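Quick log. Single chain, no ligands specified.
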Amino acid sequence: MSSARRRIAAASVVVSAATFASLAPTPASAHGSVFGPVSRVSACFAEGPETPKSKVCKDLVADSGTQPLYDWNEVNIANANGKHQQIIPDGKLCSANRTKYRALDWARTDWPATTVAAGSYNFNVRVTAAHLGTMTMYITKPGFDPTKPLKWSDLDQTPVGTYATPRASDNGYYRFTGALPERTGRHIIYKVWQRHDSPEAFYGCSDVVFGTAANAANAANTAAKAPAKAPTEAKIDAGASRSTVSHSGHGGDEQAPALVSAESQTADSPLTGAVAWSAGAAMFAAGALLFGRNRRRTD
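-> predicted structure:
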């Protein structure tokens, strides 16, 4: 075998290996956070990682640094596969049991909150990558004590909102309607977003304050201490260069959401990622086999 042919064969293997590597999952993947009602991490990011306004967000930065806020769309577990209660212990729901986001588990009553009322509620989720899956919203039970760490048993088993997430978003948002039950005072709405094209799942805690005829004034005053505000698009763009979040890995669709109405799109097959992975693996194997045979012929 000539040296030129040998170099060509070697190059084929390198190209095949590079193609295979480009299709392989990378360690991190993260793709959204609730903006309505505003999640804890989103509210603190909106205040500004370098100059937080509320005491709790200042304490979060002092404890964990600014990176958790720049990575506001990352509270995930790569291999959750629907086993949320088995892999996330009580008291660690808001952080998804990730040390990076441990401050989100703090049982405090000064988290920025959204004032809500019983009845129909329009959920608003900012996504930086759209995924085929199911997003489920839960709310804490009557009598929930916000000064104690959130436990699974604190959540009402009946969801207050469920949405089959498509692979396209409505201009970067998932918007769907749920229904909030009668509650009084401060509560938590907990998000579980399980992908169907991957075992990855995303989580989040949003603080809300209910107001009724009996406690409207008190609820308003409580929420006014730190009204939750969602990050603006300008804030998101400005912080993008500081983010360590990757939108690749963990299988399935890993592209930014299409900036079109979700209703006008048909979900792609969840087999797309698997087919691409198989193709890359086949190319690598074929290249390696050909190179090996050519070498044996010259030995």
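The longest helix spans residues 272-298.
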